[in-house]
Amino acid sequence: MAEPSAPAPRLILFDLGNVLLDWQPLRLYRQLFDTDAEARWFCAEVCTLDWHVAHDRGVPMAENARALIARYPDHADKIQAWRRRWLDMFEGYVDGMAGLMSDLIDRDIPLYGLSNIPDEVAAETFAAFPLLSNLRDVVISGAEKVVKPDPAIYQIALDRMGQPDSADVLFIDDSLKNIEAAAALGFQTHHFQTAAALRADLGRKKLL
């Protein structure tokens, strides 16, 4: 006998970077180095994603840069560019997601955000991408001083959404570890890869 399917979620909780917004630090550093190899080396060895996590936890970006500049003084300008040219890491919305978001908005599905993002760049990021204004609220890790996949940030999101049952929420993220953490807390989940795959899943869940 087939197990009953889960009830359709009532709310959607989106990650932002590489789900709604196309964010790639390498995009900036390709503008600052002469070769792609140099830009890739810099992102792998100097301004790494592990280094950036401190920003997501609320460490001031200038403070985090100072420590890195002490190690790589010849790259001071490029390290500081992470903050000064933050928006140059973006290239619009992830392919297909603007239309998908518009369709969800038309259906009046409650939409929220949960993002590992520095608080000090959140406002300028939201201003650059007006579609995000349709999210009823966004939990910003840098403001909360806690990052996914810590269970605490998912509880903050539930509180901000009005304390729904976690099973009523569809959480969408491109990070498998974040998805697994949410699933362990009872959220319905979608491991994001493409807008087309998400659209198909939303159709199965009767949200589109």
Features:
single chain, five-stranded parallel sheet, Rossmann fold, 208 residues, 2 domains, 11 helices, 48% helix, two-stranded antiparallel sheet, alpha/beta
> First CA to last CA: what distance?
28 Å
| Fraction of residues in β-strands | 5-15%
* Series of H and E elements: EEHHHHHEHEHEHHEHEH
Can you say what the CATH homologous superfamily of the largest domain is? HAD superfamily/HAD-like
Summarize the structure.
This protein has 208 residues and is α/β, with parallel strands linked by helices. The chain has helices at 25-32, 36-45, 49-56, 61-71, 76-84, 97-106, 119-128, 141-144, 151-160, 176-184, 195-204, and strands at residues 11-14, 21-23, 90-93, 111-115, 138-140, 169-173, 188-191. The two termini are 28 Å apart.
